[in-house]
Every structure is written in structure tokens, then in C-alpha cells.
Design brief:
Elements lengths: L1 H9 L6 H8 L3 H8 L2 H14 L4 H8 L3 H15 L10 H4 L9 H27 L9 H20 L4 H11 L10
Helix pairs in contact: 5-6, 6-9, 6-10, 8-9, 9-10
Pfam families: TetR_C_13, TetR_N
GO molecular function, one term: DNA binding
Protein name: TetR family transcriptional regulator
Length: about 180
């Protein structure tokens, strides 16, 4: 968890192997023996993050029958998760690549792929609700999924800038005003 915290707080490139090993209480040879290199450690950190702190979105979507209710729940969960005092603010997957250069293009792509996969899964869920009549037939599932992704990215950065839970909950509430509702005839 120490490596997760370091990468989450500072991003991938700004954290040196020396800083990682000092924080983890191990030597550089131990890090290399256990993980191979910093990039492999980071990939494992991202996987762990997705299974723990980052799991809130999929959990919220799965807990609700409609994608609209799932997204509302997920945005509220993001407001809480992004501002928990026991870990850095925001989202690791959104913020860790901010300082990456061309030398870490594979890390940038790993994080982009994670975000894209989340948007794709959401788009499919929106399409299913359109097909089931829970959302209007003309709903653009792709655009709506991207909108939610961009809102999450903005909420993450806003939390890193110091916004509290209540402020992010207000953003989540405002975001849902853009969501199409099923019109009953």
C-alpha cells in the first residue's frame, strides 16, 4: 500500500526508485527482485487500486437496476472516495499520468486504456437501457458515457485542488441534470 500511496500522491514519473524503496522500507535490489522494475510495480499498484479504491464505480452501477440510478450512485460514491482523508485526493488512474513524458508512454497508455475500458463498459450499459426502454430511443450512449468519464476526471482534479465531499456531491447532483430521463407517454 505504500507504493500505491506514493504513486497516487505524486504520479508515476516524479517518484524515484530510491524514494519508493525508502518509503517501502526495502532496498532497490529487493524492489527489483520482487517486481522487476518500477513500471511492473506500478502496473501491480494500478491493479490493486482498481480492486479496492477504484472499484466504487462498477459496484455502484451493479447495485442499481437502471444505468441512470447507477451513475447517480457512482458519482456520489466518487465524491466520497475522492475526498477520503486516509488516502490522497482524487483518483490514481486519472492523476498518475499527469507528469508522464514520452519515456513513459506505455504507462500513459495503460492508464488511458483503464479509463477507456470504463467508458466502454458504461456505454454498453447505457445502450442496454436504451434497448430496454429505460432511456429515450435517441440517447447517444457514446456521448453520455464520455460525459460521465469527463465529469469523473473533473471531480478527481477538483478534489486534488482541495474540494471537499459536499462540493463534489453538489457537482454529482448537477451532473445528473444532464442525464436523459425516460419520458412516459
Amino acid at each position: 500500500m505504500t507504493a500505491l500511496h506514493e504513486f497516487w500522491q505524486r504520479g508515476f514519473e516524479p517518484v524515484s526508485v530510491a524514494e519508493l524503496t525508502a518509503a517501502m522500507g526495502i532496498t532497490p535490489p529487493s524492489l527489483y527482485a520482487a517486481f522487476g522494475d518500477k513500471k511492473t510495480l506500478f502496473r501491480e499498484v494500478v491493479e490493486r487500486y482498481q480492486q479496492t479504491h477504484g472499484a466504487f464505480f462498477a459496484t455502484a452501477l451493479a447495485a442499481e437496476e437502471s444505468v441512470r440510478d447507477g451513475v447517480a450512485r457512482a458519482l456520489r460514491a466518487a465524491a466520497v472516495e475522492y475526498t477520503r482523508p486516509e488516502h490522497p485526493p482524487g483518483c490514481l488512474v486519472i492523476s498518475a499520468a499527469v507528469n508522464c513524458t514520452a519515456a513513459s508512454a506505455d504507462i500513459t497508455e495503460l492508464l488511458r486504456a483503464q479509463r477507456t475500458a470504463n467508458i466502454t463498459a458504461l456505454r454498453k450499459r447505457i445502450e442496454a437501457d436504451v434497448a430496454d426502454g429505460r432511456l429515450p430511443a435517441g440517447t447517444d450512449a457514446g456521448r453520455l458515457a464520455v460525459l460521465v468519464g469527463v465529469i469523473l476526471q473533473g471531480m478527481s482534479q477538483h478534489a486534488r485542488d482541495g474540494a471537499g465531499t459536499d462540493e463534489l456531491l453538489a457537482v454529482a447532483e448537477a451532473a445528473m441534470l444532464a442525464w436523459p430521463a425516460k419520458i412516459d407517454a
